[in-house]
TrEMBL record:
Domain of life of the native organism: Bacteria
Gene3D superfamilies: Spore Coat Polysaccharide Biosynthesis Protein SpsA, Chain A (3.90.550.10), Tetratricopeptide repeat domain (1.25.40.10)
Name the UniProt record assigns to this protein: Glycosyl transferase family 2
Keyword Transferase assigned: yes
GO molecular function, a single term: transferase activity
InterPro entries xrefs: Glyco_trans_2-like, Nucleotide-diphossugar_trans, TPR-like_helical_dom_sf
Glycosyltransferase 2-like domain boundaries: 2-74
Record keywords: Transferase
Amino acid sequence: MARCLCSAAAMVDEIIVVDTGSTDQTREIALEYGAKLFHFEWCDDFSAARNYALKQASGDWLLVLDADEYFVEESADAIRAFTRSTSRRIGLIEIVSKFVEDGHTFEGIHSNPRLFPRGVTYEGRIHEQPTPILPMVETGLRLLHDGYYMTDKSDRNIPLLLKALKDKPGSAYLNFQLGRQYQGMKQHELAVQYLEKAYALLRQTDPIAIENITELLQAYTKCKRYDKAMELVGDEVAWLERSPDFCFAVGQFLLDYAIDSQDYSVIENIENSYLKCLELGRRGVSETVVGSSTFLAAYNLAVFYESVGNKTEAQQYYGLAASYRYGPAVARVKG
């Protein structure tokens, strides 16, 4: 909380803190930073809590932060520039979240709607979204988020998502979020169940379409349902030109498939998948997992080349990954 308020205090005219039942020093910290402190009885509904907080604010523009988020750098000028506009629009803030998978730390990047004019509220019990729908514009602001780093919030999130889905069973967004939650819990069969439902409901133009496709491919791979994975890649091959995250997942799938089935006819496709990741990175195509178009792709490509006996190429790509200070690659280069 202190880190969050310290990073934002100089950029705003007013700080509203709503306590939903904390047992730490939230109240003391909020008052230390001159915040107006309110209490809201938790009712298993993030939108209700957020909307209560919005009602307490007096400004024409509202900036919403969670206690486990903080600005990387002072961004008052960017906020002022965005809020000087007379048009009603919603500002997207890039949020970089740390997470752990298979013992390794990664960073994910998502743009979230967090800066908007008075009158906008939230809807949705969990993974709430602003309403009414207004044009969304990137602000250039960036937050770091570590609330899920080394912390399991599934006991809280799963029941809320199931309640929300009961209210809106046809929601692609909620099915996607449930699938992703189960994926993080390594319950991959359950992840497939919900991600497949989302896949059937989503259109290609939906903002989360490629994220859902990539998560579904990863879930199929973890479940060793290689026939379904191969079918999905064939159906969504166009994304290979647009998403480094999907290319990376394709490379992982084909590598696992080749090892398990001893079908080495896909060797060239494994190589091409990781090379495509790097090509998309050079073209500036955005990624969701930091490194999927740079050091992670380079490292996996190096491991691949090493496994097929191509030491020269392996050294080249270990070096490329190490140039990003990626720990495992640095260790290989030094070794």
